[in-house]
Amino acid sequence: MTTTTAAAAALPADWRDFLALTKPRVMTLVVFTGLCGLLAAPVRLPPALGFTAILCVALGAGAAAALNQWYEADIDALMKRTAGRPLPAGRMERDSALHFGVGLGCFSVVLMGVATNWLAAAILAVSILFYVVVYTIWLKRRTPQNIVIGGAAGAFPPLIGWAAATGSIDLLPLLLFTLVFMWTPPHFWALSLFVRSDYARAGVPMLPVVAGATSTRWQILLYTLPMAAAAIAPWPLGLAGPIYGVIAVALNAVFLVLSIAVARSRTTEPKEMAAEKRLFGFSVLYLFIMFGALVVDRLLIG
């Protein structure tokens, strides 16, 4: 243990460490898609209940992230981009992260059930358990398909938001779930291409580590096609209007062009992976704009 780490370990965790456990940057996208699912629903919740529902989505996402870091503290310590997190940096005991995650998760599910309905609470509970048990504990260290199956965890928020407002599940939120589910592999594989050495060092079998960069690049392109189909589908199915439809076609055309550029790339040096970094950066913006366009379309056209 270095002097810096030992000094950090001697300090008690403060509120910033607990906030870091919730992965607030990742939570932003989760909360946004959940909010859009709620706003796109045909039923309007009172503002206080709507706020509570989205708060529960945020707390549930934070709980899942905390439990993920509790379980993965060993491999986080081996990767440059995660070594500064509270647990591998020695600023917090693992039991503290475990208790925080479990308490936050249970509170979010119960509050969702009491404030809105128990269908939304059940889906929230499933999303937390799916991320922690199925993805983090079962899949991540065992298969290069970890992010494909585990991506379902991040696709639940639109379903939760819709269910909180309506007490039911319909075709549109299922298409939104499919969109996020199919978006997750291209998004994370683009990232994993230029941080492949981190995953290799930690022994995580991400696709670029196991199958190589060329196979991963083609997989990114292949997953982009059903993602685009799910994204555009609400328009021809009559579930969204022309505002959403035009934006969806344009955004998915750009995503496809960027994916083709990644598939054609042959560089092996992370610093030279401009196409991969462009796709990763655009993929985050893409999801924000797609969901935002849907809400605007539904509110203006109905």
From TrEMBL:
GO biological process, one term: heme O biosynthetic process
A single MF term (Gene Ontology): protoheme IX farnesyltransferase activity
PROSITE patterns: UBIA
TM ranges: 26-43, 49-71, 97-115, 121-139, 146-165, 171-195, 243-263, 284-301
Record carries keyword Lipid biosynthesis: no
Topology in membrane: Multi-pass membrane protein
Pfam families in UniProt: UbiA
Signal sequence range: none
EC assignment: 2.5.1.141
Keywords annotated in UniProt: Cell membrane, Heme biosynthesis, Membrane, Transferase, Transmembrane, Transmembrane helix
InterPro entries the UniProt entry points to: Protohaem_IX_farnesylTrfase, UbiA_prenyltransferase, UbiA_prenylTrfase_CS, UbiA_sf
GO (cellular component) term, any one: plasma membrane
Keyword Transmembrane helix tagged: yes
Enzyme class label: transferase
Catalytic activity: heme b + (2E,6E)-farnesyl diphosphate + H2O = Fe(II)-heme o + diphosphate
Annotated compartments: Cell membrane
Extra information: Carbon 2 of the heme B porphyrin ring is defined according to the Fischer nomenclature.
Family listed: Belongs to the UbiA prenyltransferase family. Protoheme IX farnesyltransferase subfamily.
Function: Converts heme B (protoheme IX) to heme O by substitution of the vinyl group on carbon 2 of heme B porphyrin ring with a hydroxyethyl farnesyl side group.
Name of the protein this chain belongs to: Protoheme IX farnesyltransferase
Organism name: Allosphingosinicella ginsenosidimutans
